[in-house]
Amino acid sequence: MRVQGAVIREQGQTFAVVIVKPHVVRNSSLAADTILNFAPAFGVPVVLMAQDRWGRPTYYGRHDIARFMSSVPLRAIAWQEYTIN
């Protein structure tokens, strides 16, 4: 499976942000399962990000990381494609 994401090192923490479809972040059970599935591949805490139809991001995951990411412009994130087995 290929996913778009970013591994970010900021303020002494390393974490991953993975782009998902909006319905994933709207369903807390599905979002939690998705994070559990991605966590071993990245080896760091994972936060999910989905965009609404206007391109506005919504983050789901650890509250401190999600809050921080909500202040980061999307264009400032170095997105990459990752292959997850």
Describe the 3D structure.
By secondary structure, the protein is α+β, with helices and mostly antiparallel strands. It has a single domain, classed as 3-Layer(aba) Sandwich (Trna Endonuclease, Chain: A, domain 1), CATH 3.40.1350. Helices cover 32% and strands 35% of the residues. Strand 3 and strand 4 form a beta hairpin. The chain is globular and about 30 Å long.
Q: Which secondary structure elements does this structure contain, and how are they paired or packed?
A:
Layout: E1 2-10, E2 13-19, H1 22-26, H2 28-42, E3 46-51, E4 57-60, H3 63-69, E5 80-83
Parallel strand pairs: 2-3
Antiparallel strand pairs: 1-2, 1-5, 3-4
Uncertain stretches: none
Instruction: Please give the alpha-carbon distance between the first and last residues.
Output: 6 Å
Element pattern in H and E = EEHHEEHE
What is the number of beta strands?
5
Reported for the largest beta sheet, the result is: 5 strands, mixed
Percent in helix: 25-40%
The secondary structure category is alpha+beta
Return the average pLDDT rounded to an integer.
96
Short description:
The model has no long low-confidence stretch (mean pLDDT 96). This protein starts with a strand and ends with a strand. It has 85 residues and is α+β, with helices and mostly antiparallel strands.
